[in-house]
Amino acid sequence: FLVGDIRRIIREAAKKSCFICCKMGATITCCQTGCDRTFHLPCAPHGQCVTQYFGAYRSFCWEHRPQQALRPRPSQDNTCSICLDTVEDNISYKTMGCPACQDARFHRHCIQRLALHAGIDFRCPRCLNQEPFTMEMLTMGIRLSKRPPSWQTDRELGPSHQRHGRCDAATCLCLGGREHTEAHGPWQLRLCSSCAAEGIHRLCSSLGNSTCSWECSTC
């Protein structure tokens, strides 16, 4: 982005209202052609919107988000494969499934937390498939971590591997890129106060300068 492009994006965002909370400053627009719904990244889960954290970082509103195409479940077990609590009978935004075994069902928030903790060892909690399971989860908006699993020792890892160091905003405004951070100012990186697995530049967020904490959309 050039400086002029950043200023234009900020001006345009200031005029757009989030269709979820109805407040101004919505920087994310649904990627579906002809759809003009805009929203804040923190509001996305409440509006059942999906952001794909790979490639072009595309975002979709509730109407145009990708849908899973799974066959009827082989078993009649209606429990989450992760937390063992009840899940919905049908696939929805909150209830997801494995495209490999077609049997595992889990809550979106459960599979998201597993993805952040499992890191590079992320796989279906029931059949242990990694492909096409991982690609399906990415497409459905699950954020993956490139770190080793949290249950493995990290004593041999350096500080750069222990702390998330990139901006995960759908549109990063920093000229230095997503991985450029500063100790103070607009490019200060705020980590999620709940999981610390996602971060956002202060200027790329819709939060004011006085806000001390930030929570990612998955938390």
UniProtKB/TrEMBL annotation:
Q: Name one GO cellular component term.
A: nucleus
Query: Where does the RING-type domain start and stop, copy by copy?
Result: 80-127
Indicate the segments forming the PHD-type domain, all copies. Answer: 1-65
Keywords for this entry? Ligase, Metal-binding, Zinc, Zinc-finger
Stored SUPFAM superfamilies: FYVE/PHD zinc finger
- The keyword Zinc appears for this protein: yes
Keyword Zinc-finger attached: yes
The UniProt GO MF terms for this protein read: ligase activity; zinc ion binding
- Per the record, the domain of life is Eukaryota
| Protein's name according to its UniProt entry | G2E3 ligase
Organism per entry:
Calcarius ornatus (Chestnut-collared longspur)
